[in-house]
Amino acid sequence: MINSLIWRIKEAFAVLTGNKKTQANLKKPAFPERSINNLPSYQTDNDEQLHKYISSKKIEFIFIEIGENRVNAGGNVDLQNQNRLNPSYATLKHYFPSAKFTVYSDFDLQVEGVELKKIPQEKFDLFEEHPRKLYRLVQYMKLYAITHSDADIAIAIDTDMFVFSENIYRLIYLTDKFGFCLPSSNALSMNFDVEHSLDTYPITDESGGLGSTFNITPMTFKTSDERGRAFYNKCMETTVKKGSRSSISMWNAIWESGLYPYMLPREFCVCRGSEGIGNEVILHIGHRSVAEYYNIKI
Fold first, then answer.
1. pTM over 0.85
2. Count of Cβ atoms closer than 10 Å to residue 198 Cβ
3. Which of 24, 169, 171, 276 is the most exposed place for a label (fewest CB within 10 A)?
């Protein structure tokens, strides 16, 4: 935590003094404006094999929303005045019109086409008081929700994601093949994550902090996969026992269980710093720079 604060102060001072920019100058392509109201037609209309495959799977997308006021930690304040589940819900629904959509929440969040499941108080009581208690609870509830899904494929995803490509269908194939998947992180190593992120503590196992780190959206699970179930159950355990940011809880579960999720490429979670990588599938437009780069209008 101290290292993270020191690093952030140094970075901020360098920006203020003109010695550093908040991000590199990117040559921005001329992406056409896109929003939830002008999405392209989806591929299953014209691909009989894909349509048959997707139709054969019971797919559930899961959101976790706590607190009646929407707060976007990524900095894109434009999202705060939008439908609570958009753009994730609208863009996913466009490509998966027959999928089940569920939101776990602590208030009466009613969205047409989405099943509401209330988070019981006992789940809040699992976590001691901490400035990031609710972040930890959201992380736990993602794990709980996908392991209690009756779908064939369960996917927990944040609500500030924009499906950018029909290659979103490949996420189902990859999950079906490997059982449980998480996207790679820009941080790459656990040491980098610990040093530059909030709610962390040093990695003291024999890996020396040189294991890989993950993002946790989208988090996918083929519910018949026993390895995936064992892994996510272990993640729930470490999240409660060793409270911290999600990547550290995940790493603890990996190290203790020896189970390792399939690492999706960053194209499935394009965050600040990954703009322009090409072949983008899901954009994390909670990061304003990502929304601006790809000309996504909220």
1. yes
2. 14
3. 24
